[in-house]
Structure formats: C-alpha cells, structure tokens
Amino acid sequence: MDIRLGDILLMKKPHPCGEKRWLVLRTGMDFRLRCLGCGREVMLPRSRAEKNIRSVVRESDGKS
C-alpha cells in the first residue's frame, strides 16, 4: 500500500474521541499517526495500520 507523509487515512474504527481521520507523520516499518480530532499521536506497526485503513485521502499530486 502506498502511504506517504501528509496523507490522511480514513480508518474502519473511530478513535475514542470519535474521529476516524488520521494524519501520517512518519512511514517505514511503523507509522506515526496524529488523530485529527483530539491531536493524540500514536505509533503503529505497518501491518496493523494497513489492516485498519478504509481509504487514503491525498492532497493534489500536481507537484513538480
């Protein structure tokens, strides 16, 4: 799965604050994600995060 810095991930289950959207801060073997509802940051193993992703929202790819 192609996940990049700055992508917004829409997860299958909501965070306890009620938000399903997470901002990608770091990629690699682990993802560092920030909840867009409460601002909490978490580190998740890539395999666990990829299972829970419903869709990826990416800013426009029109960069040169």
What does this protein structure show overall?
With 64 residues, the chain is mainly beta. 11% of the residues lie in helices and 41% in strands. It is globular. The termini are far apart.
Spell out the helices and strands N to C. EEEEHE
What is the radius of gyration computed over CA atoms, rounded to a whole number of angstroms? 11 Å
Q: Which structural class do you get from the secondary structure elements?
A: mainly beta
**Main β sheet profile:** 5 strands, antiparallel
Beta strands, count: 5
Enumerate the spans where pLDDT stays under 50 for 5 or more consecutive residues. Answer: none
Tell me the strand order in the biggest sheet. 4-3-2-1-5
DSSP helix fraction: 10-25%
Mean pLDDT: 92
How far apart the termini lie comes to 23 Å
Shape assignment = globular
Please give the count of helices.
1
* Strand portion: 35-45%
Task: Tell me briefly what this model is.
The chain is mainly beta and 64 residues long.
Give keywords.
single chain; 64 residues; 11% helix; mainly beta; 5 strands; globular
Helix-strand blueprint:
Elements: E1 8-11, E2 21-26, E3 30-35, E4 41-45, H1 46-52, E5 53-57
Antiparallel strand pairs: 1-2, 1-5, 2-3, 3-4
